[in-house]
């Protein structure tokens, strides 16, 4: 199975964002993960459109946009226009998952849905035929640098079995607490895309760490 690393800009140095984006652009990371938090869906506020613009200008890599916001439907089109390639909304953030997926498709982006640690895999199964991506949160969304919740690997394996059973094209992404110590087990469970924030940006040599995460 292909392996993709999606370093999370949340852990970047915002005083030198252009340099960090240039580093990611040179690196073996194929995607760049953009965490948008509204202070309502999660107890933290990150950034939005003004930061998307310079990131889009600085790289041609896939912008993997993780919306941790309520009423995501209101902003899907704007994030697509701001340069998102993949948009992932939270299952828990909308009453109309199917409608949100249709909006993402209409906006011309890959459509993803994420589930929080307490949400079972079964909740996302009804949408698998329409989705390009399912994001399993392996920490409570809101902050970088937390520890991986054991049991998340089991959720990946369960989701992989469902995807294979129904012939969905959806890829599995995992987000939160990914390290060189647990990357191998989540790949083995069927995960293709690993988000990594602090593991990459707290490293002395982020480009090398990205290489290592791809080759565990
Ligand atoms: C948390 C975010 C993550 C975060 C991951 O809500 O969705 O993308 O940046 O950070 P690490 O890899 O440090 O757990
Ligand atoms: Zn994220």
Brief descriptors of the model:
about 220 residues, 8 strands, globular, binds D-xylitol-5-phosphate, binds zinc ion
Record the SSE blueprint.
Elements: E1 4-7, H1 17-26, E2 31-37, H2 49-58, E3 62-68, H3 76-81, E4 86-90, H4 97-106, E5 110-115, E6 133-137, H5 152-166, E7 171-175, H6 183-188, E8 193-196, H7 198-201, H8 206-214
Bound molecules: D-xylitol-5-phosphate (DX5) and zinc ion.
Strand content: 15-25%
- By DSSP (H or I, 4+ residues per run), the number of helices equals 8
Q: Report the span from N to C terminus.
A: 14 Å
Strand order of the largest sheet: 1-8-7-6-5-4-3-2
Radius of gyration: 16 Å
SSE order = EHEHEHEHEEHEHEHH
The strand count comes to 8
Give every kind of bound small molecule, once each: D-xylitol-5-phosphate, zinc ion
Global morphology: globular
Would you tell me the overall average pLDDT? 98
Low-confidence stretches: none
Describe the protein in words.
The protein has 216 residues and is α/β, with parallel strands linked by helices. Helix content is 32%, strand content 20%. The protein contains eight helices and eight strands, in the order βαβαβαβαββαβαβαα. It has helices at residues 17-26, 49-58, 76-81, 97-106, 152-166, 183-188, 198-201, 206-214; strands spanning 4-7, 31-37, 62-68, 86-90, 110-115, 133-137, 171-175, 193-196. An eight-stranded parallel beta sheet has the order 1-8-7-6-5-4-3-2. The longest helix has 15 residues, at 152-166.
Summarize this entry quickly:
The chain is 32% helix and 20% strand. The longest helix has 15 residues, at 152-166.
